[in-house]
């Protein structure tokens, strides 16, 4: 079994990747590391170098100017016996990376959000519709890749309590984009959305919500849980998977321009 680690580091406000986050990863010895929100800057570059020295091949998603947000994916070299192909697709937002290791597809992303405080209900609903559209783009993309898939992501889905139905929030943004709806979206494409059965991954005031999830296809996941560290306002999501042992050819994406492909020596 190989363990994975996903964490939203809350890169908003140009927050740096701290040495505490690196220490958590180093002590955990994770095979796959996914950071679903990091701010580009000096702290990010230092973190990437630290991870390389610790034996991880890593890649940052596309992003704009310094301080803008992206995602990071690291794979521990001694956990894999083949090269990794990194694919960055322009899905209309920068918080996305797709890595192929052998037959395994690792897709890491975050659904970006806008500040909806003080907006009218019509504007809020429009923003939630944008989130839904971005999620549909990712799911459509993931459904068309070859081989097993694990996706680690921050969905930024609407708050939804156990036992509630869509009619409880009629006319609200969460009736457009929320956890039950996302689960249906994945299942319609033969993927399983998995969320730890207890705990929560984000807290604001009295609100506790599960925003961080994984989705898989043709993979078994064990020991899925939220684990809190004092390094972010999100919990990490952790679990274990069995890695497939057959290889896909490295030219499986020949249509991609060279700047969107990178072979990492793993």
Features:
seven-stranded mixed sheet; 266 residues; alpha+beta; disordered C terminus; 31% strand; Deoxyribonuclease I, Chain A
- Report the C-alpha radius of gyration, rounded: 18 Å
Uncertain parts: 246-266
Q: What is the H/E string?
A: EHEHEEEEEHEHEEEEEEE
How many domains, in number, for the residues? 1
Helix content: 10-25%
Portion of residues in beta strands equals 25-35%
The secondary structure category is: alpha+beta
CATH architecture identity: 4-Layer Sandwich
- CATH H-level homologous superfamily name: Endonuclease/exonuclease/phosphatase
Q: Kindly identify the CATH topology.
A: Deoxyribonuclease I, Chain A
Mean pLDDT: 82
**Count of extended strands:** 15
List the strand order in the largest sheet. Answer: 9-12-8-7-6-5-15
CATH classification, class level: Alpha Beta
Largest sheet: 7 strands, mixed
Helices, by number, come to 4
């Amino acid at each position: 079994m190989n363990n994975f680690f996903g964490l939203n580091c809350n890169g908003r406000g140009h927050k740096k990747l701290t040495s505490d986050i690196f220490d958590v990863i180093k002590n955990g010895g994770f095979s796959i590391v996914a950071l679903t929100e990091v701010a580009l800057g000096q702290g990010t570059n230092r973190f990437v170098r630290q991870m390389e020295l610790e034996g991880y091949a890593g890649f940052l998603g596309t992003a704009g100017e310094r301080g803008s947000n992206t995602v990071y994916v690291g794979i521990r070299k001694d956990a894999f016996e083949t090269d990794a192909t990194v694919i960055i697709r322009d899905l209309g937002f920068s918080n996305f990376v797709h890595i192929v290791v052998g037959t395994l597809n690792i897709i890491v992303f975050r659904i970006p959000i806008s500040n909806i405080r003080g907006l009218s209900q019509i504007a809020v609903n429009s923003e939630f519709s944008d989130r839904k559209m971005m999620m549909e783009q990712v799911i459509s993309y993931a459904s068309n890749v070859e081989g097993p898939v694990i996706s680690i992501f921050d969905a930024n889905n609407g708050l939804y309590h156990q036992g509630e139905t869509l009619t409880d929030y009629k006319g609200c943004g969460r009736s457009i984009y929320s956890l039950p709806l996302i689960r249906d979206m994945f299942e319609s494409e033969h993927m399983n959305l998995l969320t730890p059965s207890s705990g929560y991954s984000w807290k604001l005031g009295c609100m506790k919500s599960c925003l961080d999830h994984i989705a898989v296809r043709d993979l078994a996941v064990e020991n899925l849980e939220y684990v809190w560290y004092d390094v972010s306002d999100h919990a990490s999501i952790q679990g274990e998977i069995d890695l497939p042992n057959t290889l896909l050819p490295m030219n499986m994406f020949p249509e991609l321009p060279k700047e969107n492909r990178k072979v990492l020596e793993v």
